[in-house]
Amino acid sequence: MKFQNFFKSFFGRSPAASWSAEKITDAWFQSHFEYAADVVHAWLSPVVDMRGARMLQFGCGDGITDLALALRYGAGHIHGVDIRREYEKLPKIAQQQIGLSRLPEALSFATITPGTPLQGRAQPYDVLMSWSTFEHVQRDQVLPILQDLYACLRPGGYFFLQIEPLYYSAFGSHLGRYDPAPWHHLQVDDDALWQVIEQCNGPMHADEVDFGFEDFGPDGYKRFVFEEYRALNRLTADELVQLTTQAGFSVVRQERRHYEPAPIPEVLLEKYERDILLNNEIILLLQKK
Ligand SMILES: C[S@@+](CC[C@H](N)C(=O)[O-])C[C@H]1O[C@@H](n2cnc3c(N)ncnc32)[C@H](O)[C@@H]1O
Known about the structure:
It contains ten helices and seven strands. It has 289 residues and is an alpha/beta fold. Strand 4, helix 5 and strand 5 (153-163) form a beta-alpha-beta unit. Helix 6 (190-199) packs antiparallel against helix 7. The longest helix has 19 residues, at 213-231. It starts with a helix and ends with a strand. Bound molecules: S-adenosylmethionine. S-adenosylmethionine is lined by residues 32, 36, 58-62, 65, 82-84, 86, 112, 114, 131-133, 136-137, 141.
């Protein structure tokens, strides 16, 4: 009997494959494998033991954060769902970035159709997570999706929900990688904004270039990111909290971060509340009581 099979029959799982964070070269990978996973863990660890919890990541993207939670924090079960299939790249990315030969058995992924209910597909989860996803959900689907996620969670379970950047903040357009002017999207129309993007040829911050870039190529990526901008639901922190409460969740903890890279243009202060223009991130710890 091979060692791997012996180990599996004895312990119920294959032995963990080795890996090393010293080999990381990609800034996007690093920011998710380290920063995002650290934040999620810091918020959840006081209330949840990840080793035994059944977790669902809504909008898992390429799954790097899930991978980190499994490898670095011992999360025993994370199912990632997304409307795209970026997670299919994860085995190759993990091999390249941390020398991992196979993904942990703790991880599984599935593609979903936007808005299709998840309730009843699996046993109730102990923990839900969502990182930089809810600003992309079509606005009229936000409440039904939150209600569905509420139904997927066991009573007493927790939901970690983060959005960054919020739409009305300096780089809430998600276009900062092409356009360095803060709040530009609130001051010009889409045609003017697209011209800036189209003409931008400078280097982008490496931690803003995801693994989809190679699929699209430089021009295709610009079009993709711009369409993503146009589809943003423009939720404010207050609206998000209100919707989560309406869906049934209780807010256990929340943090709102603010960012003022330059003085806010007067014309915007006449139109929007100062706090809305400065609030670039919200992190929520919700519970189904
Ligand atoms: C900015 S990415 C974040 C992905 C991942 N959480 C991360 O940190 O890299 C937003 C993700 O939300 C997903 N998404 C958007 N609308 C969704 C929906 N209705 N249901 C599930 N996923 C959705 C997108 O496909 C995308 O992968």
